[in-house]
Amino acid sequence: MCLTFSTNNYLNSILSNDQGQQLYTISTSGCFNSKTTITKHGQNGDDDIIGVITWHMFEDTTLWLKATSSEVAVKSLLQSKLFSSSPDSKTYVWNIWKTNLQGTNLQLVKYHKCNMGIMSPLHPPYLEISPLKK
């Protein structure tokens, strides 16, 4: 599955599926000590905040995920960070470009930047999400 960003600014964008349905909104407020909120849009118009990143300039940035109900400190977004997900008790490796299941080569999510169509086909920025295997 691919989720396409509505703009090149991934900090303030709407993510839509292949059919154009708006599934998520990413909104960032502030400049130096800003907060990014990820909202999931329900089919009945019910919105649910599923994640919050609180950016700090002189201390650790924090990442809160509704799925884990916990906050994780991230020293640098350019470094890899391990985090655990409560529902499945598995550990994931996250960095700014992709997320993998720890100890495997299974890539769960990968970010693709916008391509202007010079060396390869034109496309907006998007997230490539691997299908869940049961």
What would you note in describing this structure?
This protein is mostly beta strands. 0% of the residues lie in helices and 49% in strands. The protein has a twelve-stranded antiparallel sheet with strand order 7-6-5-4-3-2-1-12-11-10-9-8, with no helix packed on it. The two termini are 16 Å apart.
Secondary structure elements and their pairing?
Elements: E1 2-5, E2 13-16, E3 22-29, E4 35-41, E5 47-54, E6 61-65, E7 70-74, E8 81-85, E9 90-94, E10 98-101, E11 107-112, E12 126-129
Antiparallel strand pairs: 1-2, 1-12, 2-3, 3-4, 4-5, 5-6, 6-7, 8-9, 9-10, 10-11, 11-12
What keywords describe this structure?
single chain, mainly beta, globular, 134 residues, 12-stranded antiparallel beta sheet
List low-pLDDT spans: none
Mean pLDDT figure: 79
What is the H-and-E element order? EEEEEEEEEEEE
**Basic shape:** globular
What is the spatial order of strands in the main beta sheet?
7-6-5-4-3-2-1-12-11-10-9-8
Tell me about the biggest sheet? 12 strands, antiparallel
Give the structural class: mainly beta
Q: How many β strands by DSSP?
A: 12
Rg from alpha-carbon coordinates: 16 Å
In brief, what are we looking at here?
With 134 residues, the protein is mostly beta strands. It has strands at residues 2-5, 13-16, 22-29, 35-41, 47-54, 61-65, 70-74, 81-85, 90-94, 98-101, 107-112, 126-129.
